[in-house]
Design a protein that fits this description.
By secondary structure, the chain is α/β, with parallel strands linked by helices. It has a single domain, classed as 3-Layer(aba) Sandwich (Undecaprenyl pyrophosphate synthetase). 44% of the residues lie in helices and 14% in strands. The protein contains eight helices and six strands; from the N terminus they run αβααβαβαβααββα. A six-stranded parallel β-sheet has the order 3-4-2-1-5-6, with helices on both faces. α1 runs parallel beside α8 and α3 packs parallel to α4. The longest helix is centred in the middle third of the chain and has 24 residues. 32% of the residues are buried. The chain binds 3-methylbut-3-enyl trihydrogen diphosphate (IPE) (2 copies) and magnesium ion. The site of one 3-methylbut-3-enyl trihydrogen diphosphate has 11 residues, from α2.
Length: 248
């Protein structure tokens, strides 16, 4: 706790990332390390989510995007997928009051239609109930794949062009952005991946063009406020140039 307080002092509140995205990886390895089933690792992972959401809300982070389930994760064993979906609907049921009390707005993006009905019902209920909240935006990537998102956007745009509602010349980066699932949200400033893997795994391919990337070996269930502070300190030490030159 003491070192947590010390780390907190190192943070410049005026230069916090506005949008943090996290690839929450390592639940399975955590479970293996503790000699339990993978699902126990996923359950521990939801506890880490609670802590990180609370920290972001308290610190004044505007948007937290969490990669919770990828399009490729459907190919895991049926019982793991089933258990993850159960955990997800339970998490939403348990958190709705907390979201209301703490002014948290829930959003979800990805192929939501592929999710089981009971998850979609809980999602719709929570998104609707928290619609007016103006504190932290918690944005869950569910059945999400960056390539699928880009293809989905292209398909929508192609429809508009073939209906002659739009012209090919209208398409530019800003226009394209409007067809992505994340439309309306700024790109992530900081992308964190836990469990030490140096890869993107099909997350936010378009949006992370200029995100600062932070990889930690800590497994997701062990990720906590202190670890997030370390990521923020690292982020604040960097110089974001966006291809330009300093003071240029
Ligand atoms: C991340 O943990 C959670 C999901 C992908 C749903 P993993 O389940 O990928 O854990 P590892 O990578 O096997 O340790
Ligand atoms: C990325 O983790 C997906 C989520 C965290 C939801 P994975 O464990 O599925 O990715 P790989 O297999 O390590 O690339
Ligand atoms: Mg993994």
């Amino acid at each position: 706790m003491d070192s947590y307080k010390e780390l907190l002092k190192l943070i410049d509140r005026k230069r916090l990332p506005q949008h943090i995205a996290i690839i929450m990886d390592g639940n399975g390895r955590w479970a293996k390390k503790h000699n339990c089933r993978r699902i126990v690792g996923h359950l521990e992972g939801t506890k880490a989510i609670r802590k990180i959401v609370e920290f972001c809300r308290e610190t004044g982070i505007k948007i937290l995007t969490l990669f919770a389930f990828s399009t490729e994760n459907w190919d895991r064993p049926k019982r793991e997928v089933y258990a993850l979906m159960n955990l997800l609907s339970r998490f939403l049921r348990q958190e709705i009051n907390n979201f209301q009390k703490n002014n948290i707005k829930l959003l979800a993006f990805g192929q939501i239609e592929r999710l089981p009905t009971k998850v979609r019902i809980e999602l719709a209920k929570t998104i609707d109930a928290t619609r007016g909240n103006r504190g932290l935006i918690l944005n869950l990537a569910l059945s999400y794949g960056g390539r699928e998102e880009i293809v989905h956007a292209c398909r929508e745009i192609a429809r508009q062009v073939s209906n002659r509602r739009k012209k090919a010349e209208d398409i530019n980066e800003e226009f394209f952005n409007n067809y992505l699932y994340t439309t309306g949200l700024p790109d992530p400033d900081l992308l964190i991946r836990t469990s030490g893997e140096f890869r993107i795994s099909n997350f936010l391919l378009w949006q992370i063009a200029y995100s600062e990337i932070y990889v930690t070996p800590v497994l997701w269930p062990d990720f906590n406020r202190q670890e997030l502070l370390l990521a923020l300190i690292d982020y604040q030490r960097r110089e974001r140039r966006f291809g330009k030159v300093k003071n240029g």
